[in-house]
Amino acid sequence: MPLPAPHISSLIEVRPEWVDYNGHINMAYYAVIMDQGGDEIYPHIGLGETYAKTARHTTYTAEVHICYKRELKLGDRVRVHTRLLDFDAKRMVLFHEIHHENGWIAATAEELLLHIDMSGPRVVPFPPEISAKLSALKEAHSHLPCPAQAGRSISLKNKAA
Question: Average per-residue pLDDT in the chain?
Answer without folding.
Answer: 94
